[in-house]
Design goal:
Elements lengths: L1 E2 L3 H18 L5 E12 L5 E6 L11 E5 L3 H10 L7 E4 H7 L3 H10 L2 E4 L1 H8 L4 H5 L5 E2 L7 H9 L1 E6 L2 E10 L4 H18 L7 E7 L6 E5 H4 E2 L7 H4 L1
Parallel strand pairs: 4-5, 4-6, 6-7
Antiparallel strand pairs: 1-12, 2-9, 2-10, 3-8, 10-11
Length: about 240
C-alpha cells in the first residue's frame, strides 16, 4: 500500500495555480496544501509536527521574530555572542503580554515580521493570548528546539520548515510555498514533503482521501486522489472487505 503521486499531473496543477494568480492575484499569496482524510480526527489536540521543506516557504529578505519564555535581553546577548543569524527580534512571554496583548498590536507585529518561532512551552503559553486574526492567518510560531547544541543549524532548519497542527476535523491546511516563489520551487517543496506529511497525518497515508493545492483566492486543484492514485499491494483488503 502506498501513495503514488502522478508528477506530471501535480506539476500541471501548480502551473495552473500560478497562472491563475498571475491574472487574478493581489500580491504575494500563500500556497496551501489541503489534506483531506476519510474520517474526522477526534483524538489529537494541538499535535504540532514540523516539516522541513526543500526550499522553505518564504522569499529572501524574511524578517523573523523569536518568542522565548523569559529574559529576552539576556537571550539577545547569547544570540549575539554565538553570532546566530536569521533572528531579527526576541520577545519573551512577559513583554508579549505587556506590549502585544491587543489584536491591534498583534496585527502590527504580523505586518512587521514574516515568520515567528518559539519553543513548544512558549508556543503553548502564548496560544491563548494570540488574537483570532493571528490564528485565522495561520501565523502561529514555527516550533524550534532552543536546547540544540548547534543552534544556528536549528534556526536554519526552522526557517525552511512548515508545520502541521492537527486538531479535530477531516481537512488540514499546510503551508508549502508562496506565489513569490516560482511554480517549480513550490512543486519541489510538495514532492519533497508529501511523504513526511502523510506519515504525520493521523492514520498515515491510508487515512488520506485527497491532496489539493490552493491560495486564498483560488479554487482547490487536485494533486492526489486516493480512489485513483493509491496503489494497493497484493492481498490488501479494505476495512469493509475484512469485515
Amino acid at each position: 500500500m502506498s501513495m503514488k503521486i502522478d508528477e506530471e499531473k501535480a506539476l500541471k496543477a501548480f502551473r495552473a495555480l500560478y497562472k491563475h494568480e498571475a491574472k487574478h492575484g493581489e500580491g504575494e499569496e500563500v500556497v496551501w496544501l489541503m489534506v483531506t482524510t476519510y474520517r474526522k480526527n477526534l483524538l489529537v489536540k494541538n499535535n504540532i509536527n514540523r516539516i522541513v521543506l526543500k526550499h522553505g516557504c518564504h522569499t529572501p529578505g524574511v524578517h523573523r521574530c523569536l518568542f522565548i519564555r523569559a529574559k529576552q535581553d539576556e537571550y539577545k546577548k547569547i544570540l549575539k555572542e554565538k553570532k546566530i543569524k536569521g533572528i531579527h527580534k526576541v520577545i519573551d512571554v512577559k513583554h508579549f503580554k505587556k506590549l502585544y496583548r491587543s489584536p491591534e498590536a498583534q496585527l502590527k507585529l504580523m505586518e512587521e515580521f514574516d515568520m515567528f518561532m518559539a519553543d513548544r512551552y512558549t508556543r503553548t503559553k502564548l496560544s491563548k493570548i494570540f488574537s483570532k486574526e493571528m490564528h485565522k492567518k495561520r501565523r502561529e510560531p514555527i516550533p524550534i528546539d532552543l536546547r540544540k547544541t548547534d543552534l544556528q543549524k536549528e534556526v536554519l532548519r526552522a526557517a525552511k520548515s512548515t508545520y502541521m497542527n492537527f486538531q479535530s476535523g477531516s481537512c488540514y491546511a499546510v503551508r508549502i510555498a508562496t506565489t513569490g516563489q516560482s511554480e517549480q520551487i513550490a512543486f519541489e517543496n510538495f514532492m519533497g514533503a508529501y511523504k513526511k506529511i502523510a506519515m504525520a497525518t493521523p492514520g498515515k497515508e491510508r487515512a488520506i482521501r485527497s491532496l489539493q493545492i490552493k491560495t486564498a483566492n483560488s479554487v482547490s486543484l487536485p494533486v492526489y486522489d486516493a480512489d485513483t492514485d493509491y496503489v494497493r499491494e497484493e492481498g490488501y483488503q479494505t476495512d469493509d472487505e475484512v469485515l
